[in-house]
Design goal:
9 strands; mainly beta; 227 residues; 7% helix
Amino acid sequence: MKKGIVVLLVLFSVFTYAQSSKLRFGVHGGLNYSGLRGYTIPSSFEQQYDESAAFAYLGGVSMEYQLQEKLSLRVELNYERKSQKADNSMEIRFNFDEQPQVYNFTTRKNYDYLVLPILLKYSFTDKNSFFVNGGPFIGYLLKSTFTNDLEIPNFETPNEDMTKDSKKTDFGFSAGVGKNFELGNSKMIHVEIRNNLGLAKINKNDVWNGGHISTNSVNFIVGFSFN
């Protein structure tokens, strides 16, 4: 990830000497709908454990340089949480002479990343309203946690730090579609839907059925930019 930050600084230096009208800076944020893939849950667990994608958040800064009339290079540095939830069902018997009690609860796997996407952006209209973009991304894991909302009387269920069980680097390909809204005075708001397909294996330990863990997320982004 240090190399990614160096690349960002180099690009910033180059762009600073370019024509200011071709360079835009921005901030953005939004929702992140993400999940994990690469493995299957054994059928014997399906009644007690059901995984699904979950919403989280992201935010970051951007630089965009106009290469041609409708083509630009966009570089971002984002903080992004990739999360997956699971609905759990567990029976607990506190006394042998009593019936077991069923507890339903939700667990979450959270992966907090610093992500560097490098995107080529193509705008379809003269006013640069509708656009598509795509390119590689690299992510550096800051922290990974396993949380739950299980509540059992007189029993503590602490959250677990899983950072040591996950690889530090994630990488893949991003592609998105969006629209710009010009505000005047070289200011602009944009909205975008972007998919990030992780290609790296991020787990260190074995997972179910000999599979692996890779990320996948969909971003719902709102941003503001200026030059």
